[in-house]
Structure formats: C-alpha cells, structure tokens
Amino acid sequence: MTTETIEWTAVCAIDNILPNTGVCALVNNRHVAVFRVGQNQFHAIDSIDPQSNASVLSRGLLGSLGDRVVVASPLYKNHFDLHTGECLENAAYSVRAHAVRVAGEKVEVALS
Fold it and tell me: How far is it, in rounded angstroms, from Cα 44 to Cα 111?
C-alpha cells in the first residue's frame, strides 16, 4: 500500500493578497493564479489564459455566475470557475484547479 504525498509550496503571505483580488505565482515552473475571495476563501487555478497563451488570469475580475465563483479573463472575458477551472463559455478552454490552503500566515498551493 502506498500513500501519495502532497507537495505544498508557499506562495506568499496572506496579507499580500487583498480581498477579492488575485496574484500570480510560479510553482514548479507553472504560472498559478491565487485568489482571495472575501476575507477567508482562497482558490488557485492556472494563470495562463488558454485562448491567448498569456499569463493574465490572476488579473481578472472576480464575481459569481449563479452559484459559481468565477474569474473573468481580462483579454477574452471568458469566465473560469475557481473551484474546477472550467471555462463556462467553452469547456475546451478550461484550466487546472489546484489545492490551496493557509498554513500559519502563508498561502500554500499544491499542483493538481
């Protein structure tokens, strides 16, 4: 029997992400967008917009569509579900969602 170990990477201090904004971090050579929704919710998805290939999703606008928390790409305005990475306009443009946690005063990400 084997157990998988999750590798957590500290990306920044909690206070480095203002509520309802995101930051970009390089985690194991992957551009990851880390978002703080409200005071205590954190989400992480790939930051590369699949339509433009630019690392811009961390700069997108946060909001909700129905019961989904989303970020809108600043380039093509596609909406990405922060829980799943699904692109709501075209599933072919979906990105990976990553595990995120707060450990002490740091925000940490584990790539999926």
Answer: 9
Best CATH choice for the domain 9-110 from the list 3.40.50.12710, 2.102.10.10, 1.10.10.10, 3.30.420.40: 2.102.10.10
Reading the block at residue 88, the tokens are 């709501």
- In a 13 Å sphere around the CA of 108, the CA atoms on its Cβ side amount to 12
The one-letter amino acid at 35? F
Residue 41 bridge partners (DSSP)? 37
> What six digits make up the tokens of 60?
């997108």
Predicted local distance difference test score (pLDDT) of residue 2: 42
How far is Cα 10 from Cα 27, in angstroms, rounded to an integer? 9
φ and ψ at 22, to 5 degrees?
-135, 165
Residues of the chain with pLDDT under 70: 1-4
Side chain identity, residue 109: V
